[in-house]
């Protein structure tokens, strides 16, 4: 398998990315290939630092340009064909000679999405791709799709996300018969926009999907669903809010402990550490852009070495489990005629 | 001042509502009037329980019907004109002989919104009303508008929410020169839907508004803005998610403390209590539906007596501070001609 990694993406690039790539060498197969995309000198220096010389599982794809985190995605991809993100996606594209099976970037999310959509295109039958994040809640893992690739989805996009989220939850997250729900302002039938109601009706009509109806914000963290479908705006706000709020709460509690009962600090710190370890967003390495023709994993901007190693392992798993084949087959059985394009 | 309270609304109705109303008696003025809306026998029994007899500040408005929490709002308001919510809103409406200055309900939010819109109508110049919630973050209070009254706002609605949220933050929450931001999937200029961009441009053009641009989910809890404008779907998901997640985190930490270090439990419990007290969503008693011609406060379904007492005090403050007059005046100076209706 050929796995491409954007060496220049993320707040801790290039060091953490190279560390993570090297860290995966003992966990990938002898015939696997890591294709590191970035400036040759940076990559060679990083490999040398790790004492990795002439490992024939490593290839370098030279990229002389970088897309910054705050650049306008589509524009940057078009104007910087030699950026690590554009080259990475192109190397996984249909025009590539020996296309990459997996691409991974912790860089500009919008640019990675735009590049993947431009070069890799969509799986047959898929109308829009979506980013699926595994949220480690206290009631178990929840797959949230989409968190920002598609900010104005049509009802049929949301319905397809249900199928894609379901397959991802089964094959990668290991959830049997996932309960799939549609994000809304309340659980009642009459709630929501006309688009939401149409999406709900489409989801109900899909056979072999355990669709449970609407879900509201409160219930996402209490285990009422395994897959939550939403538009890219709501999903994006949800994961960022959850991240900011969790951090804020842990900080506030720690501050109070220090101020009121410093003798408790060490023991309390150990408990916080344990909870963090059990709800580790690094575990999945990143979020796949499901629906593209290939495997594209978008890692968090603050990825550390371990995140990238995990993204590589999960990317391999994504290919080996045949997620895309399953998506294609399931979508082919859906009555798309009834879904206005 | 005449303040109407829906005795039958909320999970703890009627007892907590009556307790809260009675609890406000020592804090309202001799000439204020509480109008309790619900079944006469229930109200009289509740007052008797508190030893309140013939207090001439209390009036009873008999309501023989109730709208349940899960009923379809608009339909319920239409089909149940004798419900406490419909009668409450009607008593504050323009056709009422001696209209209520404030109405408060912890019942079906959608029904209260629909009833207020139907009977109280809008302030001159207001295109849509919005629910403004004060979120007690670790970085201070943040006003979030709208959290569910308007699930498909147009750009001009969002722009008006900016003005209404600003006035509410200044006059009720006591924030000087509030920083007003628009919720989006990222802070960069090119992010978001066409509607968001149009709303942003409108907000920029409003003089005397400290509009700071887009804000993303993470930043809401880190103190980057005092007023956050959003559509009703995103806002609704945000507050419910924040509520569910905070509860989940505190529960998880408490569980871990009990499992790993039970000797710490009591002291840790005291710290949690202190944090809760400092971030008390009961403090504001509820969220005003700003923009209606009158004062309508929507309290949380799980309101306790203290919540209702606070809603009564805040409702009075809302009238006394002249929030509505300020909204009307500020909107009149906005160039609405440039905002497509």
How would you describe the overall organization of this protein?
The structure is a homodimer of 341-residue chains. In chain A, helix 1 packs across helix 10, helix 4 packs parallel to helix 5 (109-119) and helix 8 runs antiparallel to helix 9 (265-278). Chain A has an eleven-stranded mixed sheet with strand order 3-2-1-4-11-10-5-6-9-7-8, with helices on both faces. The mean pLDDT of chain A is 94. Chain A is an alpha/beta fold and 341 residues long. Chain A has helices at residues 15-24, 40-49, 73-79, 84-91, 109-119, 155-171, 194-204, 232-260, 265-278, 305-320, 323-333, and strands at residues 2-6, 33-38, 58-62, 102-105, 130-137, 140-145, 180-183, 211-215, 227-229, 287-290, 295-298. In chain A, a hairpin with a 2-residue loop joins strand 5 (130-137) and strand 6.
Write the layout of secondary structure elements.
The structure is a homodimer of 341-residue chains.
Chain A: E1 2-6, H1 15-24, E2 33-38, H2 40-49, E3 58-62, H3 73-79, H4 84-91, E4 102-105, H5 109-119, E5 130-137, E6 140-145, H6 155-171, E7 180-183, H7 194-204, E8 211-215, E9 227-229, H8 232-260, H9 265-278, E10 287-290, E11 295-298, H10 305-320, H11 323-333
Helix pairs in contact in A: 1-10, 3-5, 4-5, 6-7, 6-11, 8-9
């Amino acid at each position: 398998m050929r796995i491409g990694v954007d060496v220049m993406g993320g707040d801790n690039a290039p060091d953490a990315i190279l560390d993570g790539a090297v860290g995966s060498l003992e966990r990938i197969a002898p015939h696997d290939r890591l294709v590191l995309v970035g400036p040759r000198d940076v990559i060679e220096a990083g490999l040398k630092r790790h004492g990795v010389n002439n490992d024939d599982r490593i290839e370098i794809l030279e990229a002389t340009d970088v897309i910054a985190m705050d650049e306008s995605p589509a524009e940057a991809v078009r104007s910087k064909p030699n950026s690590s993100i554009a080259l990475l996606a192109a190397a996984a594209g249909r025009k590539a000679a020996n296309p990459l099976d997996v691409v991974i970037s912790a860089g500009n999310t919008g640019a990675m999405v735009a590049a993947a959509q431009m070069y890799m295109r969509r799986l047959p039958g898929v109308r829009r791709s979506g980013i699926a994040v595994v949220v480690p809640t206290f009631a178990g893992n929840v797959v949230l799709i989409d968190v920002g690739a598609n900010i104005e989805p049509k009802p049929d996009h949301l319905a397809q996300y249900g199928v894609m989220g379901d397959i991802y939850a089964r094959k990668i997250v290991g959830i049997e018969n996932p309960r799939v729900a549609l994000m809304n302002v309340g659980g009642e039938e009459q709630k929501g926009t006309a688009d939401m109601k149409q999406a709900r009706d489409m989801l109900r009509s899909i056979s072999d999907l355990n669709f449970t109806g609407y879900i509201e914000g409160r219930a996402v963290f209490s285990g009422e669903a395994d897959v939550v479908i939403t538009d890219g705006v709501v999903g994006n706000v949800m994961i960022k809010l959850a991240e900011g709020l969790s951090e804020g709460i842990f900080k506030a509690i720690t501050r109070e402990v220090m101020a009121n009962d410093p003798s408790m600090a060490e023991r309390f710190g150990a408990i916080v550490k344990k909870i963090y370890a059990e709800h580790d967003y690094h575990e999945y390495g990143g979020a796949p852009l499901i629906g593209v023709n290939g495997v594209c994993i978008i890692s968090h901007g603050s990825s550390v070495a371990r995140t990238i190693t995990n993204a590589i392992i999960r990317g391999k798993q994504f290919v080996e489990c045949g997620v895309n084949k399953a998506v294609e087959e399931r979508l082919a059985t859906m009555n798309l005629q009834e879904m206005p394009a």
